[in-house]
């Protein structure tokens, strides 16, 4: 028998960063590689010919192509957006792919882990859209430098064997809850009572430094605060707490499902409000 | 119209190797759309689907879309908890993802059982069947055999892109869960040896025990 289905519509968090930018050609491709005189094995060839039998995997493996552009559902050309550009051109995502590829080769112990693309994306975007063309020109090298330095501080989040160590992600997730317990015990008890584990939402918040929760310009704004703070990754914990406390009334009222949806599709878009709250929490120590 | 009498809430898992289309299947099922843009799931995603099963019954499905990359393996135990059923997905165009199916099934069965100790119902999804490369699928009998051997309640060729068989697969899984639940009621009631069989309660009891001692 036919069962009639209904569903709730929700905002599509997964298409958050509106960056068709990454599919456009860079003004500064790697000429050395693109020059047909040099017979370098390019990632285009490598990626196509080795592990990547289907297009989907190619996107997946390259990581950066994950930077999807939203609101393209109506565009008939949307299926072709990740086709490689003609010879002599390089899309921004190919530059980012190269950065991740080289990082993975230089750091075989970590290699490539899903989510690193979400870390490198905002960095590259910031350099590659700089109004000063000199900055733009060196976006690839500068991004690589910054990404490597940033990863030196956060790479433990990406290493499975460290999950349960003092520097691993589990410890940080628990830290979010213990900080919340300190700042808002009623809300903490509510989440405990509903058995909402930090793994259900804070894993992504922390690992990706919130880059999947907000629009790209807002992510950059948040990162500005994170990077400006001497204890920035402590501050990240406070930002997460602030995010929880700012929706406390909704969370205190909601059931498990409602609350999971709130935490998975965070409803507040005003990041300044969130940062302000986090700063308050920091000052009230 | 008659108001529904019965409401069921089930937690369902969607697992399988990375890039097989778990997120796309859920997106098609819940939001009725498809995007060819891949974006890796980090940790877990969560969606809700409400089924008007029959005039008396409403079934709410909590769909837990679990990241496929090996890196997230430590997280699965906490995501699996109290699930009532699962879809294991593979990509028909990539044989390696099919080879991983048994691994996912074992992982699931080792970390999750129903309150009566039996494994949860699992439906196998052969996704991306629109791609015309489904070399694996030529032999339906073999697939039936595979499902029998590995304890799947059924299998479907699906396409999130073309919206093929996703509703059907879900109905199959829910049907088995409903049937299981009837069994569960019967098996639990006369059982005096294990009074805390409903999993949430036993979990809490254990927790209290640990805190006290």
TrEMBL record, chain A:
Protein's name in the database: TBC1 domain family member 13
InterPro entries: Rab-GAP-TBC_dom (IPR000195), Rab-GAP_TBC_sf (IPR035969)
GO BP: intracellular protein transport
Keyword Membrane included in the entry's annotation: yes
Function: Acts as a GTPase-activating protein for RAB35. Together with RAB35 may be involved in regulation of insulin-induced glucose transporter SLC2A4/GLUT4 translocation to the plasma membrane in adipocytes.
Residue span, Rab-GAP TBC domain: 1-230
Alphabetically ordered keywords of this record: Cytoplasm, GTPase activation, Membrane
Highest taxon of source: Eukaryota
Subunit structure: Interacts with RAB1A and RAB10; in a GTP-dependent manner.
Gene Ontology molecular functions: GTPase activator activity; small GTPase binding
From TrEMBL, chain B:
GO molecular-function terms, A-Z: GTP binding; GTPase activity
Keyword annotations from UniProtKB, A to Z: GTP-binding, Lipoprotein, Membrane, Nucleotide-binding, Prenylation
One CC-aspect GO term: late endosome
Keyword Nucleotide-binding: yes
Localization, UniProt: Endomembrane system; Membrane
Topological category with respect to the lipid bilayer: Lipid-anchor
CDD domains to which the protein is assigned, alphabetical: Rab32_Rab38
Major subcellular location class: membrane
Gene Ontology biological process: endosome to lysosome transport; mitochondrion organization; phagosome-lysosome fusion; protein localization to membrane
Record NCBIfam families: small_GTP
Family: Belongs to the small GTPase superfamily. Rab family.
Function: The small GTPases Rab are key regulators in vesicle trafficking.
Protein name per UniProt: Ras-related protein Rab
Source organism of the structure: Papio anubis (Olive baboon)
